[in-house]
UniProtKB/TrEMBL annotation, chain A:
InterPro entries associated with the record: 26S_Psome_Rpn12, CSN8_PSD8_EIF3K, PCI_dom
GO cellular component terms attached to this protein's record: cytosol; nucleus; proteasome regulatory particle, lid subcomplex
Protein's UniProt name: 26S proteasome non-ATPase regulatory subunit 8
Domain PCI: residue ranges: 71-255
PROSITE patterns assigned to the protein according to its UniProt record, in alphabetical order: PCI (PS50250)
Organism whose genome encodes this protein: Pseudovirgaria hyperparasitica
Keyword Transmembrane on entry: no
TrEMBL record, chain B:
Family: Belongs to the proteasome subunit S3 family.
InterPro entries per record: CSN3, PCI_dom, PSMD3_C, TPR_PSMD3_N, WH_DNA-bd_sf
Alphabetical UniProt keywords: Proteasome
Residue stretches of biased makeup (Basic and acidic residues): 8-24, 482-492
Source species, domain of life: Eukaryota
Name assigned to this protein: 26S proteasome non-ATPase regulatory subunit 3
Length: 275, 508
């Protein structure tokens, strides 16, 4: 009985996902999860039948995709963790082929990236690398969902922000869910570019800054500049950095002399204990 | 290991008379270790146990089922339960055993035929470890796993402090057996995962019993276990929640540091990883058996150093122990050093199976940005002004825009001292400042001194003093006091003037 209920709930969930109308989904999801609990299939056990495993995985995957649509990062993370035991089941018990595992893992990688959690990103990547090497197929290189965040991270780390910008465009993302993160990633790179420009240029024309920062109009450049505390004069942006640096230098000497004194005293004390 | 063993076996079959000799010698060696163990229990001194354990590696090459069976039968009273279990592990059948038993009773004369006393549990466990070694070398992984499981359970129940270092060894082989069982580790169904519970329980009791040997060994085993299935988060949590015993043996410390370095490298804390790996390579034993560990940790160290933006010394690669194993890494370092992006990608592609096997592939992929950074640094050192287009061509980048962003990032990260002229499209290098005007030399100096001081501290801690030495000192002190009194008397009498006396005092 619970199984039938689950199947109807799943059907409705699919509709909700396709109709781009996810507002009804949370209620449906909790109904589906209740049904799963009744079947005792929310966590895979050694005796859970395969049909139930498939249903459970489908439900959780839908849940994950819907929470992405709803921009609910915490919910997505929860679903991702719940899905892990299913993905680590052996191939003969639960075949990997029809699942969305790489899509959801890719999304999770992207989430970590947009949160700036590089350590978590690489930790997960290491796990994936090992799993792929073991599966013996082409590995991660062929998986477009996983390659996308990897490429993005690479471009971010080496600083080719124009490639990041290109990758976040609508037609370049591997599936619409990935687009959800574009906005936050663009925000990240804009902040990065701004902090780089402060150091690299003395001044720059506003029109160039527009293309540099991927902004739509010169007006938004001016307002962005105000936020960062830059001075816009005669159609150019000036970065107020020199005075800050000299103040820093004076401060530096104070700090340095402090540490030098501290170190020397430390050596004296240690010498005393040795001799 | 197995190769050299086979070689030894062949030698023995060629020279029959010698074989008997080796056989007897081995049995007597094992028996000698029993006396060591007995002494360890009687005097409660773990050093004797360690000596017995150290001999395992030399015994290992000569070990056979008969040898172990002979030592068991001649040590235990007949029909002893433990002896039966141990004999079963040697893999000999009933006939062979009775044969051995008969031989022993015929060689031993009446005088030695006294009542055999019940052997100590230490001896049980020692023989069991020998049986483990035998099973492992004979590739009887399944039987070995079962046997080790029972052994580990027994060691835990016995709860004797004199067993600690033996227990550590037993756990080591226990985990080794499970690692060898199919399906092998990276798979999530590996039986290795199932022993985590046992190991964690062992760790808990080891900590409660202040058993630092087992604690150290089980901690490293757990880390190895987690890393083998790439459960880095769990390994990290384990490190965060436990303390590694300070009294652990050098080899365990080296292992622990290596795993720690690995975890930190994956988490991008390169500085920490570097520290751990440097200590691990320095602490790694010099014997030929440990070359694998030395190579593996050096490989990781090289990659981490590159990731930090440093270039490892050329001399590192010409060490005879490393030369061949580290060849791909040598080319990698060369590519990074000159900032040759195309060459770097080619080397990674060519050697990707090696890097995959060493578990350094993902780390090496992260090096791409370092190659670019080094390339930019080289350009900024050689040109005072260079156009972005040239940078783009030299480094093999996709577009001029990319080059501009990358250079800007390099400036911000402090890789180069330069500025960009956007309208004219070139990078202008600033005059390099005098490094001795910064605090860099002072910091390097401070680091050196810190390292020396900690070395000194560790040396002091590692010193051992002979027993009862303080009595001698007391006697000396007494003599000194007497001399002092005499001196004082002489001064009073006015025979010596003050300066001389002071000189003598300093000598004390």
């Amino acid at each position: 009985m619970a199984e039938n209920e689950l199947q109807t709930a799943l059907k409705q969930l699919h509709q909700a996902l396709n109709a781009a109308n996810p507002s009804t989904a949370p209620a449906l999801l909790s109904r589906a999860k209740l049904a799963l609990l009744k079947l005792n299939a929310l966590i895979p056990g050694p005796r859970t039948p395969q049909a139930h495993l498939l249903l459970a995985r489908e439900t959780l995957e839908l849940g994950a995709l819907i929470s992405i649509r709803l921009q609910d990062a915490e919910g997505f993370e929860r679903y991702f963790q719940q899905l892990q035991p299913f993905y680590s089941l052996p191939q003969q018990i639960l075949a990997r082929e029809k699942s969305n595992s790489s899509k959801i893992t890719g999304l999770y990688l992207l989430l970590l990236l947009s949160q700036g959690d590089y350590a978590g990103f690489h930790t997960l990547l290491e796990t994936l690398e090992l799993a792929a090497a073991q599966a013996g197929k082409g590995g991660l290189e062929e998986d477009q969902y996983i390659q996308y965040p990897i490429k993005l991270e690479q471009a971010l780390m080496e600083g080719s922000y124009d490639r990041v910008w290109g990758a976040t465009k609508r037609e370049r993302v591997p599936s619409p869910e990935f687009g959800v993160f574009s906005q936050s990633i663009i925000g990240t790179i804009r902040a990065e570019i701004a902090s780089c420009s402060e150091k690299a240029y003395a001044s720059i024309p506003i029109s160039d800054a527009k293309s540099l920062l991927f902004l739509d109009s010169e007006g938004s450049v001016v307002s962005f500049a105000k936020e960062r505390g830059w001075v816009a004069r005669d159609g150019r942006l000036y970065f107020p950095q020199q005075n800050a640096e000299s103040a820093n230098a004076a401060n530096d000497i104070l700090v340095t002399s402090g540490t030098v004194i501290e170190n020397t005293l430390g050596y004296a004390r240690e010498l005393e204990t040795i001799v | 290991m197995t190769d050299s063993m086979e070689g030894v076996v062949k030698d023995e079959s060629q020279s029959q008379p010698k074989e008997e000799n080796v056989h007897e010698k081995t049995v007597s060696d094992i028996k000698f270790n029993f006396t060591l163990l007995e002494r360890a229990v009687a005097q409660f001194d773990a050093r004797y146990t360690l000596r017995a354990l150290r001999s395992i590696s030399s015994l290992r090459k000569r070990l056979s089922g008969e040898i172990i069976a002979e030592s068991i039968i001649s040590t235990y009273p007949p029909n002893n339960g433990t002896a039966q279990v141990l004999l079963r592990a040697t893999g000999l059948d009933g006939d062979e055993l009775t044969q051995i038993a008969r031989r022993i009773s015929s060689t031993s004369t009446g005088s030695t035929k006294q009542e055999k006393k019940e052997p100590l549990p230490e001896i049980d466990v020692y023989l069991a470890i020998l049986a483990q070694v035998l099973l492992y070398d004979g590739k009887n992984y399944k039987i070995g796993a079962e046997f080790s499981k029972a052994l580990v359970g027994r060691v835990r129940d016995l709860n004797r402090r004199t067993l600690d270092s033996l227990a550590a060894k037993a756990y080591f082989y226990y985990s080794l057996f499970y690692e060898a069982l199919d399906p092998k580790p990276p798979s999530k169904q590996s039986p290795l995962i199932s022993i985590r519970g046992t190991l964690l329980a062992a760790l808990r009791s080891a900590v409660l019993r202040k058993d630092s040997d087992t604690q150290a060994s089980v901690t490293t085993l757990l880390l190895r276990n987690y890393l083998s299935t790439a459960d880095i988060t769990q390994a990290d949590l384990l490190v965060a929640q436990t303390q590694f015993p300070e009294a652990a043996t050098n080899n365990q410390v080296a292992r622990y540091l290596y795993y720690l370095g690995r975890i930190r490298a994956i988490q991008l804390s390169y500085t920490e990883a570097h520290d751990h790996l440097v200590s691990a390579t320095r602490k790694s034993p010099n014997s030929a058996v440990a070359t694998g560990f030395y190579q593996q940790s050096t490989k990781l160290l090289v990659v981490v150093e590159l990731l930090m933006g440093d270039i490892p010394d050329r001399a590192l690669f010409s060490q005879s122990r490393l030369e061949r194993g580290l060849e791909p890494y040598f080319y990698l370092v060369q590519a990074v050093r000159v900032g040759d992006l195309q060459g770097f990608l080619k080397i990674v592609q060519q050697n990707s199976p090696t890097f995959h096997r060493d578990g350094t592939y993902t780390l090496i992929l992260r090096l791409r940005q370092n190659v670019i950074k080094t390339g930019i640094r080289m350009l900024s050192l050689s040109y005072s002004r260079i156009s972005l287009r040239d940078i783009c061509i030299r480094l093999g980048l996709d577009s001029e825009e990319s080059a501009e962003y990358i250079v800007a990032k390099a400036i911000r990260d402090g890789v180069i001292e330069a500025s960009i002229d956007h309208e004219k499209g070139y990078m202008q290098t600033k005059q390099a400042g005098d490094i001795y005007a910064t605090r860099e030399p002072g910091e390097a100096f401070h680091d050196r001194i810190l390292a020396c001081l900690s070395l000194h501290d560790e040396c002091v801690k590692a010193m051992r003093y002979p027993m009862n030495q303080h009595r001698l000192e007391l006697k000396n002190a007494q003599e000194a006091r007497e001399r002092e009194r005499e001196l004082a008397k002489e001064i009073q009498d006015g025979d010596i003037d003050e300066d001389d006396a002071a000189g003598e005092f300093e000598g004390l």
